[in-house]
Specification:
By secondary structure, the protein is an alpha+beta fold. It has helices spanning about 5-30, 135-140, 245-275, 275-285, 290-300, 305-310, 330-335, 340-345; strands at about 40-45, 50-55, 65-70, 80, 95-100, 115-120, 125, 130-135, 145-155, 155-165, 175-185, 190-195, 200, 210-220, 225-230, 235-240.
Amino acid sequence: MRPPPSLLSLLLPLLLLLGGRAAAAAPADSRAQLPAPRNPKVHLYNAEQVLSWEPGSLSNDTRPVVYQVQFKYPSDSRWYDTRDIGVDCMNVTTTKCNFTPTSLSNGFPPHFNVSLRVRAKLEDLVSPWLSVPWFLYYWNVTVGPPENVWVTPGEGSLIIRFSSPFDIPASLATFVYYVHYWEKAGIQKVKGPFRSNSIVLNDLKPLREYCLQVKAHLVWTYYNNVSRPGHLSNISCYETTMDATTKLQQVIIIAVGIFLLLLALAGACFFLVLKYKGLIKYWFHSPPSIPSQIEEYLKDPSQPILEALDKDTSPTDDAWDSVSIVSFPEKEQEDVPQSTLTQDCGPVCQPVGQEL
């Protein structure tokens, strides 16, 4: 008969099991891992492609932490270092990795899905990988407004020139443009799409101020012409110039206006002359003057000036404004002294009763 097992023999297998688990867990506790980065963000604006993240919280370790970024395509299960696309993000000290291509031949293919992951490294310690949601550049990019917008006012038109927001391969995508314009304090209108970088807005009113904005749409021709709308440019306002018809009308209006103004001035002057004729005649009439011989006589009455004037004066030189011939009845004629008639009429008068 076999003796019953002792308590020690029953507990020994349990102790060995617990001891084995403790020995297996000891190496993991001795090599603590770094915290993984947090809050990854992919910034896609025009040609810019930047991955950024926040660092994991460390305790009191002041040693520098570096970060490593890798990428892969959905068609491949292998992860690649960013140096394969010309970007060195193997051991960066900043919390971002800039994938912006320097040319159309560099960087990620814009029509490929791209997956990214990042982890922290501190000497021989590493953090778990932080996976970033995949992105497709042509699907997720934010298209900015057209650049270098330049507007030239024309005769009832506006000529708009600009450059595309960024360069894209013509075989995969293209830009189309829309112009939002309105007469100041008017209703907004939209024209487009235009594929050219030079646009002419016709049929505008001359000498009117118009405001406009330009928007670019990224059209992915490689995939069913999917369009990605962009942002509007800043508002700019310009005044259109006159066309030939408006110039002719303006010249005619100015000429007619000047003629009517001169006619009105002439009529006003004529009316004033008629109304204030006496006053005007008084202003422009020269004051009476004393003959020089009389003036000399008045200065020196002793000079025989009057006798000299009497001798030099002939009857034919005298003149009168008017001559009045007064006739008397025969009875009254005898009573009138002859000297009186001669004094009144002057030397050319005939005696009363004689025919002239």
